[in-house]
Design brief:
Helix content: 40-55%
Strand order of the largest sheet: 1-2-3-4-9-10-11-14
Largest sheet: 8 strands, parallel, barrel
Bound molecules: flavin mononucleotide
CATH class of the largest domain: Alpha Beta
Distance between the termini: 9 Å
CATH topology of the largest domain: TIM Barrel
Structural class: alpha/beta
Strand content: 5-15%
Radius of gyration: 22 Å
Number of strands: 14
Order of helices and strands: EHEHHEHEHHEEEEEHEHEEHHHHEHEHH
CATH superfamily of the largest domain: Luciferase-like domain
CATH architecture of the largest domain: Alpha-Beta Barrel
Length: 434
Amino acid sequence: MSRRLMHLTGFMLYGPAPHTQLSWVYPTHKIRHQWYEVEYWEEIARTLERGRFDLFFFADGWGGGNGAAIRWAIQFPTHDPVVLIPRLSAVTTHLGFAATMSTTFYPPYMLARKLASLDHVTKGRIGWNIVTSINDAEGRNFGVELPAHDERYDRADEYLDLVCRLWESWEPDAMVMDMERKVFAEPSKVHRIDFTGKWYSSRGPLNVVPGPQRRPVLFQAGASGRGRQFAARWADCVFAAGGTPERTVAFRKDLEQRMAAHGRDPARLQIIAACGPVVAASEAEARERAAEISERIPVEATIANMSGHWNVDLTRYPPETRLSELGDVGGTRGMVEFYREQGDPTIAEVARTYLNMSSQDGFVGTQAKVADTLQWMFEDGRIDGFQLSPQWYAPDYYRDIVELLIPELQRRGLTRTEYRGTTLRDLLAQDTPA
Ligand SMILES: Cc1cc2nc3c(=O)[nH]c(=O)nc-3n(C[C@H](O)[C@H](O)[C@H](O)COP(=O)(O)O)c2cc1C
């Protein structure tokens, strides 16, 4: 049996500030390309491929745009990754890509068609991060009212049922392109789906021939009970955020049970943890960088970010308000539940470290120290891989990761040194014990 290997993904959104507040602030003389220039993204894609990453992941959101978000670039602006990915797939050969698209906003037929087309353009390297969307501002941009948290997942279940049927509407050998008989495809092998659900309907068949993967790799990040139920039914790969290793182990156990209840093989579950290590050649240099990151972030910017994620205008509350006093949170509910379980901190206490990875000791230091942390989470915490989120100018952040951390992980036999297989599904399935 092949050795189990870590899966690595680069976490961005197609905008100036992927996750960590103000990570776009950087000495201008060191900037080669700006985030709005495609060369910036090509450089990152090539770097990730050089580090033998599995995936370049694009988060996405459709809200923001209030004063704080504009001033500090908090989840705003966000360009469309679906337009960027084909360009990046042309400058890479193995790296996979995932785009976030919302079941609440995209018509299912349109989404199934887009992803099937992307599977062709990327030669089988596309994945979909399924989200149900988080905040009312997003809904207002689409002119729809965001359904309540759990109902969004009820709708998403139906949505997935529909799009998967569309992807299966062509039998694998339907397209023959027989020049002699002048038959393009066998009509008996291309099927209508005649789907009529509570919220969605579609006649089918899909007007796209299935790509190399037929079904793109499905990613999801459900954290609440209802979100996990959804992930267990559909996802190939689940993201875990903000948890201790103990919590991640419990998260995995819970998901495995839920998967089994859906008749799926829990051994196939992949859990990817979000992190953003600050790696430097010396411990002192890494600490200095971490201190710079913390100084860079105004607390108001962090509170604006939390407000967007949680779908609550936190500026309306005094900073010493405890999270339990916020009542029902309709955005990323699972994340708020996590904090409440951790002693119910105040808004100000959460804001001090929110999405600032430089505040976690095990993730700040030399490559050997950070590799120890990752190895421990991978081996003892049963985490299958990591989402690495840039803490500074992304092309340099990933260059440092690939030049310092990756060789250390490779030397320990924890990550691949060469690619095998051709599709994203191959990459993620590989090196995972059956
Ligand atoms: C690594 C990661 C990436 C995410 N990316 C997005 C995203 O791009 N867009 C989005 O609307 N939500 C995103 N989310 C939020 C999740 O879809 C989900 O709402 C959140 O984890 C809370 O789970 P719950 O919906 O079960 O409460 C992300 C979450 C995580 C952990």
